[in-house]
Amino acid sequence: MAGIKIVQTAHEVPDKVVTNDELKQYMDTSDEWISSRTGIKQRHVTTTQTTADLCGAVADRLLTDAGWSADSLDFIVVATMSPDYMTPATAAIVQHHIQATNAFAFDLNAACSGFIYGLKVAGDLLKGGQKRGMLIGGETLSKLVDWQERSTAVLFGDGAGGVLLERVSDDDPSQFMSSDLQTLGELGGRLTAGYQPLTSPFATDDTDAHQRYFEMDGRAVYKFATRDVPKSINRALQAVDKTVNDVDYFVLHQANQRIINQIAKQLGLPIDPFLSNVAHYGNTSAASVPILLDEAVRAGTIQRGQLIALSGFGGGLTIGTQLIVF
Ligand code: ACO
Predict the structure, then answer these.
(1) Looking at CB atoms within 10 Å, which of 118, 127, 200, 285 has the fewest?
(2) pLDDT tens, 58-83?
(3) Least confident among 17-26, 96-105, 203-212, 223-232
(4) Signal peptide span per the entry (predicted)?
């Protein structure tokens, strides 16, 4: 059996930072409300870069930092819920940008769990015989936000992060461990964005135009995340005879600091092993886990040989956990 290793991490965010105080120009809100409810202090918002631009910058950095040539890649997967186009896929634009002529490329959408679902898919491709892959989570959620709607606009940000993955031998100390994916489609209506209306002359579509933007039952999503993420983490741990006490760090989707605090509590752990950067970026959906992972690796917090639990949750509703020995 082949093993799978994360060889390199990288991230990219737009230059423009929008603080909570700056949002007061556009909606009736305050730093006090946003900070106390979510832990978010600022977010990066794109002015020119598209999702594909951000992902392309991540791809460039990954290859440069790892010293890999683009033509050594077998595949590229981009997890996104805010692609530039329905077609071509963001991953195909990235493939052209880096000239990865030997790689097949496709997008995957599992909203805020997208990067975790991507790890599962990429891991299975590598187990199935591919040798090298690139997985990026990238979003420009600022285009899916109604900037007059304070209950959602304050939560989201733009960015991208990614990893290079390689098939390695079983005795390599870095390995993918278990994964746990779950989808609760019956709760899909609790969090929607980007409705695509029927526009043909034959269609009748009376859906309100505003469904283009985020609509969320915040309380329901909060309840779902704090109830189901701990279960997913425990299932993934049980599958490899581990417990939460064996985990060195938890890299959770960065939606809200209160959700992270509550998950730590549910798991009976102190907050220390739960890494967080939600204060700086807000919720960047599929990008949040790889951005946090890259920051922690570059800071020397996450090191080779540590057991890391990566977990995402969000639209779908979806949940996913991937355990790795980094
Ligand atoms: N500024 C000021 N007041 C606000 C704002 C704002 N930005 N937004 C809402 N309010 C007001 C509301 O209008 C309401 O006022 P009212 O009582 O007069 O009606 C009051 O604040 C309380 O609103 P609630 O929605 O009850 O606030 P709550 O404490 O539930 O917090 C929050 C809202 C932060 C959204 C919370 O429910 C939450 O974190 N939910 C999880 C959502 C989430 O993380 N989603 C993303 C995960 S999925 C994905 O990543 C795509």
Answers:
(1) 200
(2) 999 999 999 999 999 999 999 999 99
(3) 203-212
(4) none
Cα 273 from Cα 63, distance rounded (Å): 29
Residues 247 and 188: beta-carbon distance below 8 Å: no
ipTM for the predicted complex: 0.91
Residue 314 β-bridge partners: 318
59, 24 Cβ separation under 8 angstroms:
no
> Within a 10 A sphere around the Cβ of 317, how many other Cβ atoms?
24
The pLDDT tens digits of the residues spanning 110-134 come to 999 999 999 999 999 999 999 999 9
The binding-site residues of ligand 1, defined as CB within 6 angstroms of any ligand atom, are 29, 33-34, 37-38, 111-112, 150-151, 154, 191, 216, 218-219, 221-222, 255-256, 259, 283, 285, 314-315
Residues annotated as catalytic are 112, 253, 283
166: its two tokens? 């390689």
Of ligand 1's atoms, which has the minimum distance to the CA of residue 37?
34
Helix axes 51-66 and 90-98, enclosed angle (nearest 10): 40
Helix, strand, coil: what percent of the chain each, to 5?
40, 25, 35
Identify the structural domains of the chain with CATH numbers, from first to last.
Answer: 3-168 (3.40.47.10), 175-325 (3.40.47.10)
Virtual CA dihedral for 233, 116, 310, 317, nearest 10 degrees? -50
